[in-house]
Amino acid sequence: MTDVNPEDEVQKPTAFELVGGEERVRALVDRFYDLMDLEPEFAGIRALHPPTLDNSRDKTFWFLCGWMGGPDHYIGRFGHPRLRARHLPFAIASGERDQWLRCMAWAMEDIGIDESLRERLLTSFFDTADWMRNRPG
């Protein structure tokens, strides 16, 4: 039997750390919603949101911090995210999923997230966004 020295086990950095912490997650969320508000190709998902995006920005920021392995701001405020249940009132099909993913990919690129991390995050975002679909198509 060999002893394992805990100092030998290196913790991998979280996506939250790799992105650059709260300041960079906030920049990502702000760019995401700026693009959603400005770019015609995201009109479908913009229409699912209220006229002002301030509340959506905050909730997405709080959620993504925890989802990426940082502080659980969202859970501390609202409890379990229950993403699918919270989104059931909104018609989400493949088109909305794809708009959301394209908008997030563009935002990640714009704020300069490393390409390999972008790919890793997009894979995870796709899994979540695909699971959120609640309409055919």
TrEMBL record:
The keyword Disulfide bond does not apply. Belongs to the truncated hemoglobin family. Group II subfamily. It comes from Caballeronia glebae. The keyword Amino-acid biosynthesis does not apply. InterPro entries: GlbO/GLB3-like, Globin-like_sf, Globin/Proto, Globin_bac-like_CS, Hemoglobin_trunc. PROSITE patterns: GLOBIN_FAM_2. This is Globin. Its cofactor is heme. Pfam families: Bac_globin. Keywords: Heme, Iron, Metal-binding, Transport. One of its GO terms (molecular function) is metal ion binding.
